Amino acid sequence: MATYDSPGEYIDHHLGHWVVGDPDSFWSFHMDTMIFSVLLGAIFFFVFYAAARKATSGTPGNLQNFIETLVDFVDAQVKDSYHGTNRLIGPIALTIFIWVFLMNVVKLIPYDLFPWLVSFLGVEYLRINPTSDINATAGVALGVFVMIFYFGIRGKGFGGFGKEFLTAPFAAESIVMKILLAPINLFFKTVEEVVKPFSLAMRLFGNMYAGGLIFTLIAISPWYMQWALGFGWSLFKLLVIVLQAFVFMALSIVYLSMAEEEH
Question: Choosing from 199, 221, 234, 252, which is the catalytic residue?
Fold first, then answer.
């Protein structure tokens, strides 16, 4: 286990990433974020694939019961919030919810365990919680952003979707007013669309980063306080972890539904 000269050094170390490339340039990679994002996505895929392969119409096992409960829960949210016709929305919502939840929940693993294990391999920094990295949350949010355009163009056509950028939110009857309001509508509509992925990414990142920082502060507190503080904060954080995954999924469903709806 590495030793630290001060609490500040410990905090700086545990908020660092395993970076490949020049950390000060754009072309650098947070390898820990990439590895754990892919790993958790693979775990999600194989668990659900195994459940689907073993699914039965008879008496279901515990895994099938659990998966069906999750699917029913997500399906209910889709039915309540989505008013379009794209059948992909259910799998998309389920993937977002489970993947974001898994990337959040690994925060509850003992904080120093994985950094200590990889230190024997010469890796100095490691953060196993991808959603504490703005790159991960922004990546998922940009995926939703691309789907917003896909759903909008699919539902209204390229012309119909593009027309909204010139005619909403301020509508007009006369040709002259439509022309005059077009630049204003374009500005407001562009801001409205850009804010969607930005808000998704920053909300999730802010909550997860703050939670990790508090875990770090608990880790440098006196040993006789760590268990009580850590246990209490972990229970509260578990609620936040589930809530943030749900909010990310719910907002994504709403945004995709709005993209298909006529305004």
Answer: 199
pTM of the model: 0.88
Question: Which one of 135, 154, 203, 234 is the catalytic residue?
Answer: 203
* Average pLDDT for 221-248: 88
Distance of alpha carbon 16 from alpha carbon 127, whole angstroms: 7
Using CA atoms in the order 218, 220, 221, 224, what is the torsion angle rounded to 10 degrees?
100
Question: Domain ranges in the chain?
Answer: 9-19+27-260
Q: Is 203 considered catalytic here?
A: yes
41 vs 218 pLDDT, higher one: 41
Q: How far apart are the first and last CA of the chain?
A: 59
CB 13 within 8 A of CB 125: yes
SS3 176: helix
Q: What is the pLDDT of residues 113-132, one digit of tens each?
A: 888 788 888 888 888 899 99
Query: What is the model's pLDDT at position 2?
Result: 53
**Quick check: is 53 catalytic?**
no
Query: Which residue of the set 185, 207, 252, 257 is catalytic?
Result: 207
Pairwise CA distance, residues 209 & 17, whole Å: 13
Q: Please write down the long-range contacts of 43-49, taking CB distance under 8 Å and 24 or more positions apart.
A: 43/102, 44/95, 44/98, 44/99, 44/102, 48/98
Residues 26-52 as b/e (b if ≥16 CB within 10 A, e otherwise) read: eeeebbbbbebbeebbeebeeebeebe
Active site annotation includes 65: no
